[in-house]
C-alpha cells in the first residue's frame, strides 16, 4: 500500500514538475523570444489606420462649365438572412427591380438577378449570407434612385409593423463616384472611370496622374472597442486633392456638333460619324464628337467595344478629294497653279493605268480653277505629277505632317500612312486615294494652316491645369507653331479658291454648304472604300467628308465632318447632301454664339464698333453704374435688388466691342431666377445664361421664343427654343429683340444633283 502511495505521489509530482517546466518555457518564449513580434502585432491591434481618399479633380470646359466631377453616390446592399427571416424576399426583389431597371436590361432578367442576391447562401450552404451587393445596377447609383429605395424600405417597415429605424435587410451605403452631367456630351473626349474609381479611357486615363491626387493617412491608438485612447499617438497626413483640368472645349459648340451629327445619323444611317471643330488660329479643339456614342455614367451597358473608339484621332481613312488641298497648296506655293490655264478633263493615263474623273467622261476642256470647283481628279494628277513632280509632292505631304502623329494631347492617336512607290500611286495620291491614308485630326491641322496664314499648328485640347482651391492656373498650354508649310500669300490664295468651291452655285461641289450670312471656304470629298480582303474599290460604299472654315476673310472656326458608309442607295451623287446641312448648322450657330457679325449685318453697319475696356462696377450703385456705362457708350443691364453691384460680366478690364452688352447683379446670381429671355438673340441669351451660371442648350435658330429651366443652384440648366425673327409668334410675348447676327439656315435642301468626287 505504501509503495502504491509513493508511486502515485511520484507520478503526480512529476506531472506538476513537467507542467511547471512547460509553463516556464512558454513564458520565456513569449517574453523573450517572441516579445518583439507580439508587441508589433499588439500595436497593430491597438492602432487604427485610415486611408484618406483625395477628391478627384474636375474636368471643365474653357468657360469653367463642369464636364466631369466627383459626386455622392449610393450602393445597395442586402442581408439575405434577415430578408428570409421576415419572409420578404419577393417584395424586396420586385421593388428593387422596378427602381433599378435600366433601358437595356429587361425587367425579368433583373428580377432574377436580384432574387438570386436576396436569397444568397453562404459558401458552405449551411445558412443564408448576411451581406451581398447588387452589381452593377445597384452599385454607385444616383440620389434619385437611392431616395426611391428609402421609400421602399419605409413601405416594408410599415408592412412588417416595424419602427422607422428597424433594418429590413436593405442597406444604403454612401460612396463617391465619377459623374458626367452632360451624359453623352463629349464622351469620347472624357472617357470614364470605372466603378472601382480607376481611369479607363479618354482624358480620364491620359490625365489620371493630374486628376487623382495623393491619398492621405490617419493613424491613432484604440481600445478593444475601437475607441480612441487618451493621449494616444496620432499620425495625420492630409490627402492632396487632384487638380482640375480646363479644356479648350466649348460646351455649347460641343453641343452643336453632337446635335448636328444626330440629325445626319437619323437621315443617312452611316456606320460612323466624326466631327472636329477648332479655332484655326490656335488649333485649340472647340469640339470633337463621334457616333455611335456612349454615356460614361453607364459605360457598362455598351456591348460593342468599338463604340468607345475616338475615330477623330484613332482611325485612318483614305481622305479622297479633301486631300487635294495639299496638291493645290503645293502648286500655288511653287508658282505652278494658273487658275485660268486650260486642260482636257475626263481621263489621263499614267504609265499603263487610266485614271478618270468621277463622271468618267469629264467636262471637255476646262480651266484648272473649274477643275478644282468640279473636283476633277485629272486636274490634280496633271498638277501634282506633271507640274509639281512626284518627289516634291511627297515632300509637301510630309511637310503638312501626314507621315507622323500630330501629337495631340489625347490618347490612342495613330499616324497617317504614306507609302507611294510607283507613278500610278503618286498619281492617285494627288486626289487622296491609294497609298495615302490619314487621320481626321491631320486633315484638320492641314486646313487650319490655310486658314491662319500658312502655319501648321499643334492641335491641343488641354488649356490649363487649375488649383481646385484657388481656381488659379498652375500650368497652361499655349498654342505652338510646328512649322510654316506655305507662305501667307499662298494660304490666302488657296482660301480664295476654296471659297469658290462653295460659292459657285453652278458647278461648285461644295455649293450646298454655301451660307448667305458668312463666307465659307471648304472642300468636299467622296472616297470609295476598298473591299475587305481585296484590292479593288467598292462601287456602292463611300466615305463622305467636308472640311471648311468661316468667315473666309478672318476664320474663327474650322469644322471637319466625316461620314463612313452613309446609306446613299448606291447613288454617290447624293454625297454632297450628307454633311453640308450639318456644316451650315454647326458653323452658323457657333459664329452667332461667338458674336461674329454676318455679312448682311456688316453691310448695314455704317460706323465700325470701337473696342472699349470694361470698367469696374464693383460696390457702386445701379444709378452710378448706368451713368458710367452711358458716359463711355456701353449698354448696361441690371439684375436683382440691392444697394451695390456684387458681380458683373464681362469682368473689369476685359476689352470688348462697343456693341456688346454689360451685365451687373445687385445680389448673388445664385439667389435670383433666370430672367425671361424670350425675344433675345442667341448671343444675348447665352451671355445672360453664362452670367447666371446656368447651363444653356438651344434648339432651332433665330431669337428665343420659349425657355424651360430645370434644376436648382449650380445644377440649373435651361433649354432655349429659337425661331426666326420673321416668325411673329417667336416674339409675341416680348419687346423688340436686340439686333443679332442672323443664324445660318438649318433647313435641309431638297435632293439635287451634286458633283461630289468619286474615285476609281
What would you say this structure looks like, in words?
This protein has 22 helices and 34 strands. The strands form eleven sheets. Strands 2, 3, 4, 5, 10, 21 and 22 form a seven-stranded mixed β-sheet that branches. A five-stranded antiparallel β-sheet has the order 12-11-26-25-24, sandwiched between helices. Helix 4 (89-100) packs across helix 5 (107-118), helix 14 (377-388) packs across helix 15 (390-399) and helix 14 packs across helix 16 (423-429). The longest helix is centred in the N-terminal third of the chain and has 32 residues, at 2-33. Residues 601-609 and 726-760 have low confidence and may be disordered.
Helical element count?
Answer: 22
How many strands, which pairing sense, and closed or not: the largest β-sheet? 7 strands, mixed
Quaternary assembly: single chain
Task: Please give the radius of gyration in angstroms.
Answer: 35 Å
Give the beta-strand count.
Answer: 34
Spans of at least 5 consecutive residues whose pLDDT stays below 50 are 601-609, 726-760
